[in-house]
Amino acid sequence: MKKVLVLGAGLVARPLVRYLLEREHEVICASRTVAKAEKLISGHANGKAHELNLKDEAKLAAYIDGCDLAVSLVPPAFHTLVAKMCIERKKPMVTTSYVSPEMQALDKPATDAGVVVLNEIGVDPGIDHMSAMRIIDAVRQKGGKIISFKSYCGGLPAPEDNDNPFGYKFSWAPRGVLLASRNGAQYLLNGRKVEVRPERLFRDMHILQVEDFGDFEAYPNRDSLEYLDVYGLQGIQTLFRGTLRNMGWCDCMYRYRQLGLLELDEVDVAGKTYADFMREFLGAGPEEDLRIAAARKMAVAPDALPAWNLHWLGMFSERKFMVEKISPLDAMGELMFERLAFAPGEHDLIVLYHDFTAAYPAGKHERITSRLIEFGQEDGDSAMARTVSLPAAIGVHMILQGKITTPGVLRPIKPEIYNPVLDELANLKIECTEHTEIF
Asked: Domain 252-339, what architecture?
């Protein structure tokens, strides 16, 4: 029996914990809130729940000393710390998050120490990489070359539970969603590099139609050019990675960025209501209708979604702040977390869509599409939780079985990783459907 340390007990952790317990691993779940860890373990004989403040580095080190592998499901800022401790102790590590520059810098230390540090093995990043590389490698094996690749992913409410004017509900960390809204992006389009400044992120939007499923807003996701080397796509004409949302989201977030509601500098709100905060924030008069004032500053009609949604959230309400200082992003984020939460019995939706164009020496071209449509389950596991944490759980199991041994900072882009992970996901009813057209 191997001991797996799972750091974090958030919204996506449950399927991973259950998968590992069912395969007779001992799982030690450590969380700032021990009650959350206990809920994940659910009384299983091979599970243990502990309280852990990640700032207590001595205690974190002791937990890593006592495990065979660590899984980091905590905020990304802590991944590098966990990785360093794992490398020092020659313990493998798995995380679902993007490889940051700080994490990439640990590749040589991990390689020298013979330690596997497997990253980006969730859904986005994760299943997107694996399903893409399976297609890219298959095209290469047939003598072809990918000349265009567009990849999209979004976590959304299921259509029957899409009942708010934002068209969105939180299935992962709310602050993370808003922080991602501050990112810039870059990608390739028809051989031209496109750079998107953070304040223009939501203006670089187009509509993606997923056949038989509907229309979505698509906007750029971070730095697509990074994947020229990751996927081995040098010379490609179009490379775009995008995020999907329901209609209306992009205009709201663009206007809120313009307004300053995504800023991180804290302001004094002691004893104030949200209405007080917004009146000062907007520079509105004492009797002025705040929705009208906000609409005017955003250059939209008072009944347009950006202004109406602020009213619907409660940004103009007499609700009092319970803190003395808060940033505009967190002030809005706290209301969004409450109003855009999934209610018991509601379901989420993951949409993952790839669109490739491949060229072959004889002049033949293929358009290859791949899509994953995954709904939350009746037993309470969300689609987001399953698609994020089950790939990670499979990766953990493979490392502990000695099936992933290459040391260093890894992504799941090699056949020896992506084929068994995708095959096991298919056994768990998480599977991409592909379609090919020849022209």
From this structure: Orthogonal Bundle (1.10)
Top-level class of domain 3-118: alpha beta
- Which of 68, 107, 112, 124 is flagged as catalytic? 124
- Look at domain 127-250+344-379+431-438 and name its CATH class: alpha beta
Phi, psi of 428 (to 5 degrees): -95, 15
Give catalytic status of residue 124 as yes or no. Answer: yes
Record the pTM.
0.92
Beta-sheet pairing, 145-157 with 185-189: unpaired
Domain ranges of the chain: 3-118, 127-250+344-379+431-438, 252-339
Q: What's the CA gap between 382 and 378, in Å, rounded?
A: 9
* 3-class DSSP state of 104: helix
pLDDT tens per residue across span 154-202: 999 999 999 999 999 987 777 888 999 999 999 999 999 999 999 999 9
3-class secondary structure, 340? coil
Rounded to whole angstroms, how far apart are CA atoms 273 and 339?
A: 18
Name the residue with tokens 């860890």. Answer: 37
Amino acid at 232: G
Dihedral (CA of 300, 301, 306, 307) sign: positive
> Beta strands 365-375 and 433-438: pairing type?
antiparallel
Say how many C-beta atoms besides its own lie within 10 A of residue 346's C-beta: 16
Whether the bond into 412 is cis, omega within 30 of 0: no
Secondary structure element (H or E) that encloses residue 281, with its range: helix 274-282
What are residue 374's DSSP bridge partners? Answer: 350
Cβ atoms of 388 and 374 within 8 Å: the answer is: no
